Amino acid sequence: MAKQRKTDAKDAPLSLRERNKLRTRQELLQAALEVFAEAGYGSATVEAIATRAGTSKVTVYTYFPQGREELFRELYEQINIELVERATNIFGRKGHFADRVVGLTRALLDVAERPLIGRFYSIEDPSLDQALKPVRGHASRMWIELIAKDLQSAQNENRLASTASPEAIATLVVGAMRSALSDVARGWSRSADLEQALESLVRGLEKR
After folding, report:
1. CATH homologous superfamily for the domain 69-208
2. Which residues pair with 206 in a beta bridge?
3. Which among 25, 92, 108, 151 is most buried, taking Cβ atoms within 10 Å?
4. Intervals of CATH 1.10.10.60 along the chain
5. What is this structure's pTM?
């Protein structure tokens, strides 16, 4: 008789209690996002978040002992993780550096177009910046490294028109992408227009 394969603990189905805890955690995160969108970080108190979620401050601190700072860090890091995974998938396949930058741009603009999420991820607020300091820049730094590596390869093969530092170029490209995120999230620009413009800029880096 064939031996029965042991079930990996991480593959085992979640218990009802575990599912309920995950649901409560996500409800608190969603409540924090909604309060933030309506009143800004300064008014997104633990009490306001608890009221929006229909629970108590005790429950909020049970799931997020550091309070609202921890809540918003987790919200931000969830988006970081998604964008890192998208980048890993894009750069895990062979492709032209410009095509890959376009793919990254599309991923970021997908975030920008989501109600609540886009504004939160693109927000510039000194008080929120301090709370997000431990997680801010995780995705951007990875993207800069990946783009710079592609540009360095192109430069080594004499395919790049510029002799500037690939890392410096990558930093400016990601900065432009972040600016596009902000404009789309605020409804100031159409994502298709910015995506097309960024693609033109990046393709212009290659020798003709």
Report:
1. Tetracycline Repressor, domain 2 (1.10.357.10)
2. 160
3. 108
4. 15-65
5. 0.86
